[in-house]
From TrEMBL:
Pfam families: CbiA
Any one of the GO BP annotations: negative regulation of cell division
Origin superkingdom: Bacteria
Keywords noted in UniProt: ATP-binding, Nucleotide-binding
GO cellular component terms, A-Z: cytoplasmic side of plasma membrane; cytosol
Molecular-function GO term, any one: ATP hydrolysis activity
Protein's recorded name: ATP-binding protein
Residues annotated as domain CobQ/CobB/MinD/ParA nucleotide binding: 7-194
Length: 328
């Protein structure tokens, strides 16, 4: 399943993503983690040595390779140059799986050893000042969208993306690519305003959105979040001494994480599992086509000089071969 952590800068997206990833590793689940946050800190939060984190390949820099691989022999996509971030897979495209080796992982992923097993980490690459404008930022995050749209994930496999919740996530279909989106919010007006904005965009696309209250210190904080986000509040996490120790570069073993926080992580997993159980591959595919047609019309056709609507394979449904057969 595919899971996103979003929220305002400093709310704790990266911290909670990293704890959730450690939790999944402790349950022996295969994990592909993706750092798509403006500040690329997920590797560090997972305890990656500094020199290794600094040497993480940038997905944005490997876009040509990613496009070429995913395009495969799809006759509707005549060249990698005409492939934009929303170009959907079709007959002949290559699909990615969580548990496999492939050229995309080889180029972009690194293994991170955690207390309870290894996970794969990929990163968009650091955003510079100019990336925060429109096009480059999107091409870096676009590599993530392409991969997610070509990724066939099972119920016991996890893709966890740490990403920024700005209007940037809404310029493409990226925000609709997840079985569960965890919006990390501190009990502040700013924290919940990001939630409201996200909810607004998500509404029309059936995005499963749950709020994770972070740095919640007592009843008043809890009451505030309850009042502001209602039933969307899934769990809250308090100040964690474990996290603080990790920040000092002395991470205790994961099993020593506070029991309450471990329970919160389990609740996140349960919510994501529940949501995946309702994954509708047909709808998932239709949404990617929707955003592709929108992008094609608004800038893609002009940029590539091609009619990108022709890239859509009307017969294709992303999913395991079995699931496809069932739908057919
Ligand atoms: N529950 C927590 N307990 C203790 N420190 C936390 C907690 N959540 C976040 N922090 C700290 O707050 C800071 C910002 O968190 P971070 O995860 O980097 O935010 P974001 O990725 O949303 O920008 C970090 O120094 C982090 O260690
Ligand atoms: Mg972060």
């Amino acid at each position: 399943m595919k899971i996103a952590f979003v929220g305002k800068g400093g709310s704790g997206k990266t911290t909670l993503s990293s704890l959730f990833i450690r939790h999944l590793a402790a349950t022996e689940s295969p994990v592909v983690a993706v750092d798509a946050d403006i500040n690329q800190h997920l590797g560090a939060a997972l305890g990656m040595p500094e020199h290794e984190a600094a040497a993480m390949p940038a997905m944005g820099a490997h876009l040509p390779l990613i496009k070429d691989y995913l395009r495969g022999s799809n006759p509707r996509i005549v060249s990698a140059d005409t492939m934009i971030k929303t170009t959907p897979p079709g007959e002949g495209s290559r699909l990615l799986r969580v548990r496999e080796d492939n050229p995309v992982y080889e180029a972009c992923a690194r293994t991170v050893g955690l207390d309870d097993g290894d996970i794969r980490l990929m990163a968009t690459g650091p955003f510079t000042e100019s990336d925060l404008g429109v096009s480059c930022y999107h091409s870096k995050v676009g590599a993530v969208e392409l991969c997610l749209n070509h990724l066939v994930d099972g119920a016991d496999e996890y893709v966890v993306v740490d990403m920024t919740a700005g209007s940037d996530s809404f310029a493409s279909g990226l925000f609709t690519r997840f079985d569960m989106t965890f919006l990390v919010a501190e009990p502040t007006r700013k924290g919940v305003s990001v939630y409201r904005q996200y909810k607004e965009y998500a509404r029309d696309f059936g995005v499963a959105l749950k709020v994770v209250g972070n740095k919640v210190q007592g009843q008043d904080d809890l009451d505030f979040l309850r009042a502001e986000v209602g039933d969307d509040l899934l769990v809250t996490v308090g100040h964690s001494d474990w996290v603080r120790a990790m920040e000092k570069g002395r991470p205790p073993r994961f099993e020593l994480l506070e029991a309450e926080n471990r329970m919160s992580l389990q609740a996140l997993q349960d919510a994501a599992d529940d949501s995946y159980a309702h994954r509708d591959w047909d709808r998932y595919t239709r949404q990617m086509v929707h955003f592709h047609l929108r992008n094609a019309e608004s800038w893609g056709n002009a940029k590539t000089g091609a009619d990108l609507a022709a890239q859509v394979d009307p017969e294709f449904v992303l999913g395991e071969p079995l699931a496809v057969a069932r739908l057919g």
